[in-house]
Fold this protein.
Amino acid sequence: MNTPALLNPCRAVLAVLFAIALLIAATSHTGAATFHVSAAGDDSNPGTDAKPFLTLERARDEIRSLTRDRPLREAIKVVLQGGNHVRRDTFELSAQDSGTSEFRVTWEAAANKQARLTGATMLPVTAFGPLTNQAARAQLRESARQRVLQVDLRPFADLQLGEYPQTFRGAPAAPELFFNDQRMTVARWPNKGWATVSKIIDAGSVPREGDQSNRPGIFAFAGDEPARWNVDAGVWLQGYWCYDWYDEAIRIRSIDRDQRQITLAAAALYGVKQGNPSPRRFRALNVFEELDEAGEFYIDRAARVLYFWPPSSIEGARITLSTLKGPLLRVKDAQHVTVRGIIIEASLGAAIEVSGGQANRIESCTVRNVRELGIRITGGSEHRVENCDITDTGTGGLVLEGGDRKALTPGNHQAINNHIWNFSRHQLTGAYGITLGGVGNRAAHNLIHDAPHQA
């Protein structure tokens, strides 16, 4: 009759031992849930701080192996150690890379380190030399001949130099040059401000009104500067061809030097017309003959040579060409993923694209030096961009689109406490610091400044 009473203490001891065993197992799993990635790592490593992985994909695949057959039991963290994590293609996270509302998956920079996710190719200082091509020297002004350096890009076999399309807005998908993280300027004229159309000879067709004959505009110019240009090498004019709220770049077909007239290679969207009272204005882009001041560069695509007038001594400088054509990071249909504290830079597309999914966060990141948009969020719900610096983008800063306008279902995306400046560097109109689309999305406490058009 007394046996059950005697067994109770044993059962209590077993229960305590079992709880301790569970606690030990949980503690052990917590250590395994942090993975490290380093540009000096190796994907055969275990992903520890001392022996990190080399690639983000290896860390991603390790997380997938942990969550393939069971739900997350605790948060998982991937730490990017300091240095350049160079991308030749877009890093993608999908639904299978999701966390949960209780246990998030976080990709973050190591504490007090600069971890760069970059789409740039590094050009070593030793690759730069004096301008030796005599024909090229003859095309430049005397003041530039001793200042311009050249780089033979043929050894960089994987470097895609891109092509300028006949017409474009913003900037073409061609490499951009950065010197100590500052964007350099493709050789242009005038160096500051704009030239003006002296007289419109032929407005050309107006595609915006349905005329698809593609009759190019013709206009007269003042002065002799355009007569120096080699249009066969490709010269583009970025201009406000009709209205002051729409800029567009169009290649030059020909220059009549005697009549001082330029014929464009394609129709301007609204034609070459006096849509506003102010004079129509333009500037020339990608003109080797106009490489005449510090900070300008030109790429001879046929010869694969970069010409550059550096703004200061190149000794010890970080000189890069952005080459990645897509976004650096794409998050599609994932949930509860955080990206924190990483410098994301040097893409010919956007820096970050998030589509679908739920409750993803971009926190305390620096997004800079991209040809197009900083961050684009479309669809999904409850995504958040917070405490980020977004600067030096070719078009806009941040787009938040989500929710169902017909049903008035809110997207609940948020942009909070971000600093957005020096955006719209290439597309001078219609590219905004923050764009809200859909319904029920919020922007609050963001500092937006220094742009050519609108916030």
